Amino acid sequence: MELKHLRYFLTVAAERSVSRASLQLNVSQPSVSRVIHELEDEISIPLFYRTSSGMTLTSSGEKFFMYANRVLSIMNEAKFEICKIERSNSIINVGFCSSIYIFEIIEKLKYVGYNVKNLRFFEFNSMKQIAAVKDKLLDLAIIRYADDFSFPDLECLPFFNNEIFAVVPASHRLSGKKSIYLRELKDEKFVVLKRDVHENMNKLLCDACAVSGFSPDITFCANGFMSALATIATGVCVGLLPRNIANAAIPGYVYLPINGGNYCVESACVYRRNEKNASVIELAEKIKLCYSNEICKQCEG
């Protein structure tokens, strides 16, 4: 088993499709299928249900997904530590959050002609990224919650508003609706995210519920977005989460647009205010350009 097997597996699980995964990985569909079959043959357990609507994880696949994520996370940390020792001016070290769809950013950068080969990516939460930028371990951070940014020694360049949706279990009484009013969840139990990392997200939840005339019954606390989705999928609670993690490879939940309010968290590029490497500033500006309305329409076209 190679790291390639884990990367391909995680990408297929996230995309729920071999064809979409092949586009993200920039390889042929047969190559992706072959690697997945090699992985399943090696462990002698099917990891996916294959249906006409796509690929979904088996119960064993869901368990393997957790371990594969952990292995690649450890590898990311190892790469990060090595980069502390040997850094090159030609390389830009970029941090990103789990809810920032980094494949999308890379594809948009390629579309506008940016050479991504000199970028190294590391996954950390927003606060750890900011600390790493300050300590010169990262050159650029791609963070959430830029609307409440207050670090005088850092530059913050917002580029994208990530819409917040209500998330309910697939078996929930509201799961069949196209959209809901937040007040329809006033009698539900809510999951929130770990406070020292996602305080702004939790504040948004409480403020939005207050506008709708109720105080949320916060019963569960999750370490991150994937844990929150998994908790919701068990049927014990609901939550408010960013729309761009809706394709996570966890079954059993439904995303619902919220009527009567525009709930968003802002994503941004962060770099040192006295940054002397013009390539870092150029990268931040390119990412902002990628999310301009005109470029987005061209990419979708």
Topology:
Blueprint (H helix, E strand, L loop, with lengths): L2 H13 L2 H8 L3 H15 L4 E4 L2 E4 L1 H27 L6 E5 L5 H10 L7 E5 L2 H9 L5 E4 L10 E16 L10 E2 L7 E5 L1 H17 L5 E6 L2 H9 L5 E4 L10 E4 L1 E2 L4 E9 L5 H13 L2 H8 L1
Parallel strand pairs: 3-4, 3-5, 7-12, 8-9
Antiparallel strand pairs: 1-2, 5-13, 6-10, 6-11, 6-13
Helix pairs in contact: 1-2, 1-3, 1-4, 2-3
Give a quick set of tags describing it.
13 strands, D-Maltodextrin-Binding Protein, domain 2, Arc Repressor Mutant, subunit A, two-stranded antiparallel ribbon, alpha/beta, 10 helices, 3 domains, single chain
Write a compact overview of the structure shown.
InterPro entries: LysR_HTH_N (IPR000847), LysR_subst-bd (IPR005119), WH-like_DNA-bd_sf (IPR036388), WH_DNA-bd_sf (IPR036390). The chain has ten helices and 13 strands. With 301 residues, the chain is α/β, with parallel strands linked by helices.
Q: Would you write up a description of this structure?
A:
- The chain is α/β, with parallel strands linked by helices and 301 residues long.
- It is 43% helix and 23% strand.
- It has 3 domains: 71 residues, Orthogonal Bundle (Arc Repressor Mutant, subunit A); 99 residues, D-Maltodextrin-Binding Protein, domain 2 (3-Layer(aba) Sandwich); 102 residues, 3-Layer(aba) Sandwich (D-Maltodextrin-Binding Protein, domain 2), CATH 3.40.190.290.
- Strand 8, helix 7 and strand 9 form a beta-alpha-beta unit.
